[in-house]
Amino acid sequence: MSARLDVDRLLDQSSIIVCCGAGGVGKTTTSAALALRAAERGRTECVLTIDPARPLAQAMGQTELDNTPRTVADVDPAAGGSLDAMMLDMKRTFDEIVLAHADPQRAEQILANPFYVSLSSSFAGTQEYMAMEKLGQLRELGTWDLIVVDTPPSRSALDFLDAPQRLGRFLDGRMIRMLLAPAKAGGRGVMKVFSVGINVFTSVLTRVLGAQALKDLSLFVASLETMFGGFRERADHTYRLLKEDGTAFVVIAVPERDALREAAYFVDRLASERMPLAGLVLNRVHTSAASGLSVERSLAAAESLDKSGDSPLTAAVLRIHAERLATAARDRRMAERFTASHPDVPVVQVAAQASDVHDLAGLRRIGGELANGPEATAPVRPAGKRRAG
Amino acid sequence: MVVSDFPSAKLHVVTGKGGTGKTTVAGALALALAAGGRQVLLMEVEGRQGIAQLFDTPPLPYEERMVATARGGGEVYALAVDPEAALLEYLAMFYNLRRAGSALKRIGAIDFATTIAPGMRDVLLTGKVMEAATRERRGGGGRLYDKVVLDAPPTGRIARFLNVNAEVAGLARMGPVRQQADSVMNLLRSRKTAVHLVTVLEEMPVQETADGVGELTKAGLPVGGVVVNMVREPLLPAASLAAAAAGGLDQAELARGLTGAGVEAEPALVAALAGEASDHAGRVLLEEREREELAELGRPTYELPMLSEAIDLSCLYDLATMLDDQGLV
């Protein structure tokens, strides 16, 4: 059996917590619950969410997507902490980078380029880059001593991890130089100047994209060129940030085959990248407070009641109990399979909630469960002395 | 035999929020469509090998493989689309550029196109889907299918994924990419396509389904049916639901019933059972509300039950029959 994840210690000692996992496992809710608990334990906290459900966003006072951290009201300030929350606006984040790195005239050119407009607002993949970028920005501001990040609902959780590296690799590569070639040469015998590789490349692009689109693309890349140094530096910086001591990855799953498979994959990947994994949060785990009454006995008792016609209500309740026990047993088997293959990963389980979380009280309850387990009702203890930096 | 709600659909796109069982539904739909002797291709595009797991076969290569035979002699083939292979195939097929592939790979252009350039990947994937769905007799030599089922990206990304070619069309004003983009969009926006949304009766998946329907409609993409998956039977008598949900289940009655059935009615046990009944009732009432929300979408709705066992092939056939009986096929 693996160790229990010490959530309060994690919240008190980390400077960045990255929540990742498959879609639909409660990532955003868990991120928000961790953030609220950290704040109420005395940390100056910011939570970066990607695409929260409306009720959850409203619970945190986020009525609009405006890319600015806003203070969450009604957070208990007794321990001296605070909570800010923001939702990522990927287009605005991208625009801000352009405006910060290019002179006004060039920035205007870039913002108007059709490739830029499309890239920054609607293409999948940009969200991952921008989430990383925003994390880097928030961290640089130095306003918060802990940032909790919810990762985008990618096709795979790995996109998030790979985005900065990919960007770096791309910017280093020959691709960029080739895309720049037509714009730089300005039509003056491109083909003569460059190697055969470029020859093939540009002719393929011209045939595939059409000459006008290639010109747009090339101009776009050329106008971005001045920013590339900054881009690359930032991508590297963010990647290093993720490997730092104060960073912790929390993998989130539910006791279902697909979600746990993805979690296992992610855990292995983090290990091979030497990224600091804190542990696994297993959401929506079913338990029963009446496990002494077995499935078999419940069903037999229900059947005898059916026969006698006595108390249909009790028969129904016994069947509900049998179903619950079966679900709990299945959840337990799933969890055990994960821990058997990953015995060193600390785990914390959160009980299945009767309904989705709509308010801070709900987040607080989940935070309590994360820290103390489902049954415990121990109050939040204030944070002890925090590490400097 | 029930009349199909989507008789003109050649391409069935199945989306759903993570965890709602969209791959299972896509697999069942493919089996249902194949029943009676049809040839069906089931495609996945996210590199998850979900189809291989569902049909309990080794991981699928980039090659159409038969994974199941349907009732009445049909066959389901499966293909896991890999963007890189799709790009090379595409270059070879449309531009006679097979040999350029290795040169492009060397300079990182293939890597660029399939992983770095945002959107390119989706262009390639949707392009391959169209290719499979529009094969002509005696054309490129590929197998001909009566129907194609796509296990698509999740609801949150589906409109963007399917609409990616409209974006491309905006960028490339002419040339082969533009033509290709236009013909993909023509297929996807026609009655030959139906985009089905899989959900469960919980708040967020239902909300996402509603948002997904809105986004698809806005993009001019044909919304098909809503498949409600993992539906559980309410076990409590209807009259007791509201009281139980509010925590007011008749515990004296419960204690009496337990004793009558030979179970010792300790107070702790009674309270715990009443608590479980209350959770159950709360969920049933919530599910009713979510069902009403879905009804407001005004789309044909199909229900599949929660299966207590892990999904195996025999369950899939059962689910396929249920989809058929309800008219999705």
Structural class of chain B: alpha/beta
Order of helices and strands of chain B: EHEHEEHHHHEHHEHEHHHEH
- CATH classification, class level of the largest domain in chain B: Alpha Beta
Shape of chain B: elongated
Which structural class fits the helix and strand makeup of chain A?
alpha/beta
Q: Fill in the CATH topology of the largest domain in chain B.
A: Rossmann fold
Total helical segments of chain B: 13
CATH topology of chain A: Rossmann fold
Helix content of chain A: 55-70%
Structure summary, number of beta strands of chain B? 8
Distance between the termini of chain A: 34 Å
Indicate the low-confidence ranges of chain A by residue numbers. Answer: 186-194, 376-389
Greatest chain-chain contact: A-B, 78 and 77 residues
What do these coordinates show?
The complex is a heterodimer of chains A (389) and B (329). Chain A contains 16 helices and eight strands. Chain A has 389 residues and is an alpha/beta fold. Chain A has a single domain (7-290, 327-372), classed as Rossmann fold. Chain A has an eight-stranded mixed β-sheet, sandwiched between helices. In chain A, helix 7 (126-141) packs across helix 8 (158-172), helix 8 crosses helix 12 (211-243) and helix 11 packs across helix 12. The radius of gyration of chain A is 26 Å and the shape is elongated. Chain B is 50% helix and 15% strand. By secondary structure, chain B is an alpha/beta fold. Chain B has helices spanning 22-34, 50-54, 83-95, 100-106, 109-116, 120-133, 155-171, 176-188, 203-218, 238-245, 251-260, 267-295, 313-325, and strands spanning 11-16, 39-44, 65-69, 75-80, 147-151, 193-199, 223-231, 301-305. Chain B has two domains: 11-232 and 306-321, Rossmann fold (3-Layer(aba) Sandwich); 238-280, no CATH class. Chain B has an eight-stranded mixed β-sheet, sandwiched between helices. Chain B is elongated and about 80 Å long. The chains are: A alpha/beta (389), B alpha/beta (329).
